[in-house]
Specification:
The complex is a heterodimer of chains A (about 325) and B (about 350). Chain A is mainly alpha-helical. Chain A contains 13 helices and two strands. In chain A, helix 5 crosses helix 8 and helix 7 packs across helix 8. The two termini of chain B are about 35 Å apart. Chain B contains 14 helices and twelve strands. Chain B is globular, with a radius of gyration of 21 Å. By secondary structure, chain B is of the alpha/beta class. The chains are: A mainly alpha (about 325), B alpha/beta (about 350). Chains A and B meet through helix 9 and helix 10 of A and helix 2 and helix 4 of B.
């Protein structure tokens, strides 16, 4: 287990290094000059040079990348902003705030969105999928399967607007989407996020329904499930202790990756409901040529996926005794 | 005459599929006494496994229709509820499957899987069940049973897994054991060990065994009586000696002819039965074997393709064939002399 963690952590570090380098290169491949934008309307070559120096983009690309990396581990001194302690992700070109502070400020929104909707889609997706598998071929299965097919082809920006219009504006059942920190008021936190949770989880519920159903159907036809029945175990025991055990592995794998992805920011959902999470932050960073911000968000998003990949592999070894971690 | 321990009467197992009704078993009858072994022989798709799945009630109820009568110790199984069957399965009747690796759960230890059956039927505690699992593993010849009990199936060898499977099937001292090709996936020496084990356990507990196989060599080793199935029907039955020495059906004869003989001359080519097993969706008319039968023309008036031969059983011996006994004596002579030495 220890060797597994060490090996995978090193691997993850390499991946993140490559990703951040790629972002650097791609950013400068675009024909835009962040200094020119930051310089404003009246911009002499002298001021432009000064802005460049202040932003830390006067040096050649490898030097810049090296400085950025160094900042991450030992901190960094800026002429205009002063000392930035490790882990330093730099200062935003846009609002001149430390990138790390902005990300830490936005992350709870994204985290709340990801966790809340995951709970909803896991419960409904796996539940419906199991029901469909039990009632295989019957009316309930057909309804669930067609409904999930329709739901999975929905788009968040359509469903989101529609849901807000009906549930909030017309019927006054739920609150308009807004973010209250959980630590401030848990009830208000949940109320404000309920609509985005439901909308975001609609499509995922559909996917998990279909995945659970097919995994369960496959597991139910396994020989060891037949053996369990031949032993005289009840249908319920056979279903949950044997078939579900077999179906669980692939579902947990996909879930880990999905959760990692959601933690990097749900761009469409956040913009549909005007929630200020990491997704919106990344969109804004791209559109304003804010390299440090973009690097920071990408690093968090990629980090989440990489970390959940490791967690998934470790959990898989717990579920399936045939899997050995090495 | 007292009623036999297991009595199957005119069993029909029909599957409804999109293409029509598959008559997997079409009117099968046999009896089995305690302490005896019935060997059921036939090619793939002859209905031998389906018959036994039906006895345990493991068929898919959504598309399978059972008809006839299965009496286990006087209890009718076809009309029994799922709950009643659950009480019997693993307890009074149990089953050993062919592929032990696929048939054991990869997610639970061997001990847990054996103990689970025991707890379900006896209400024993976890500790008692574990002790019982260790005892059973020892009984089926697994070394260090108190250690191996906590291992998973993938940590066992093929023969060990089959032994563990047998331990699991026998944990509640069942009176009926169905072994569905339990040795097919094993190499010959392990195969012999497993069969010896089954024989020993049968002597100890007086279990009735149904042994399903396509291997006549295995039948010769374990069975008391033999039932030969073809196309969902019984074509011949009798004692092991009768069926193997003096077969009365061309199909049985063909099976024997397609088997290599160890003590015969080595250069005698095998004599496989031509053609392939019949489609049960659309079975041949009359005798289901007639398209592949070497002697079908010997019967006058094309009766083989027109009329289903009746299975007439006298004292447990019978065959379903239109040939007269005189014809059989004459026609089967070559085979018989080559086989009986």
């Amino acid at each position: 287990m220890f060797r597994f963690l060490v090996r995978r952590t090193l691997g993850a570090a390499v991946i993140l290094l490559i990703i951040s380098a790629l972002v650097f290169v791609l950013f400068y491949a675009a024909p835009r000059d962040p200094a020119r934008i930051a310089c404003g309307k009246v911009c002499t070559p002298e001021t432009l040079e000064l802005v460049r120096k202040n932003l830390g983009i006067a040096d050649p690309l490898p030097v810049q990348y090296w400085e950025w990396l160094k900042g991450l581990f030992v901190g960094r001194d800026y002429t205009s902003f002063g000392r930035c302690d490790a882990p330093c992700l730099g200062y935003s070109f846009q609002n001149r705030e430390p990138v790390l502070d902005t990300i830490l400020d936005r992350f709870p929104t994204t985290l709340s969105l990801a966790i809340g909707s995951s709970v909803v889609y896991l419960i409904f997706g796996i539940g419906t999928g199991m029901l469909a598998a039990v009632k295989q071929g019957k009316a309930l299965d057909k309804i669930a399967s067609s409904a999930s097919l329709i739901a999975s082809s929905m788009q968040i920006y359509v469903v989101g607007v529609l849901a807000t219009y009906l549930l909030v504006d017309q019927w006054h059942l739920l609150d308009r989407a807004n973010y209250t920190p959980f630590t401030d008021n848990p009830a208000q936190w949940a109320q404000g996020l309920l609509v985005p949770w439901l909308v975001l989880s609609l499509i995922w519920t559909a996917n998990y329904t279909r995945m659970t159903r097919s995994q369960m159907v496959e597991a139910l036809s396994e020989d060891y499930v037949r053996t369990a029945r031949a032993k005289g175990l009840s249908r319920r025991t056979v279903f949950f202790r044997f078939a579900w055990r077999g179906a669980m592995g692939p579902i947990i794998t996909i879930f880990g990756l999905d959760l990692g992805m959601l933690l990097g920011g749900a761009i469409i959902t956040e913009s549909t409901f005007s929630l200020q999470g990491l997704g919106m932050l990344s969109v804004k960073a791209v559109s304003t040529n804010d390299l440090p911000m973009l690097l920071g968000v990408v690093l968090v998003a990629a980090g989440a996926i990489v970390v959940f990949n490791i967690i998934v592999d470790a959990v898989y070894a717990l579920i399936d005794p045939r899997v050995r971690l090495a | 005459m007292s009623t036999p321990f297991l009595s199957v009467r005119d069993l029909k197992v029909h599957f409804s599929t999109e293409d029509g009704v598959v008559k997997a078993v079409d009117g099968l009858s046999f009896d089995l006494e305690k302490g005896k072994t019935l060997g059921i022989v036939g090619e793939s798709g002859s209905g031998k496994s389906v018959t036994n799945m039906a006895i345990l009630g493991l068929h898919d109820r959504r598309n399978t229709a059972l008809d006839g009568e299965i009496l286990l110790d006087g209890k009718e199984l076809i009309t029994a509820t799922e709950r009643e069957l659950e009480q019997l399965r693993g307890n009074k009747m149990s089953m050993i499957f062919q592929d032990a690796l696929a048939s054991l759960s990869p997610y639970h230890t061997i001990g847990a899987q054996i103990g689970e059956t025991y707890r379900k039927h006896t209400g024993a505690s976890k500790k008692e069940a574990r002790a019982r699992a260790v005892e059973m593993l020892g009984k089926v010849g697994i070394p260090q049973p108190d250690v191996r009990v906590d291992e998973y199936p993938h940590q066992f060898s093929g023969g060990m897994r089959q032994r563990a499977m047998i331990a699991m099937a026998l944990v509640c001292d069942p009176e009926l054991l169905i072994a569905d090709e339990p040795t097919t996936a094993l190499d010959v020496t392990v195969q012999a060990q497993i069969m010896d084990l089954l024989k020993d356990l049968q002597q100890e507990f007086g279990t009735a065994i149904i042994f399903i196989t396509h291997d006549l060599g295995v039948i010769a080793d374990v069975a008391d009586d033999v039932l030969v199935m073809y196309g969902g029907r019984c074509v011949e039955r009798g004692t092991k000696k009768e069926v193997l020495r003096t077969p009365q059906h061309p199909y049985t004869l063909g099976l024997l002819g397609s088997m290599p003989s160890l003590d015969g001359p080595v250069d005698v080519p095998l004599n496989p039965i031509p053609g392939s097993p019949p489609s049960l969706l659309n079975p041949p008319t009359g005798c289901r074997f007639h398209p592949r039968c070497a002697f079908a023309e010997k019967v006058a008036g094309g009766r083989c393709s027109a009329e289903r031969p009746a299975l007439e059983v006298v004292d447990g011996r019978g065959s379903a064939c239109h040939l007269t006994s005189g014809q059989k004596r004459e026609l089967f002579a070559d085979y018989a002399s080559a086989r009986t030495h």
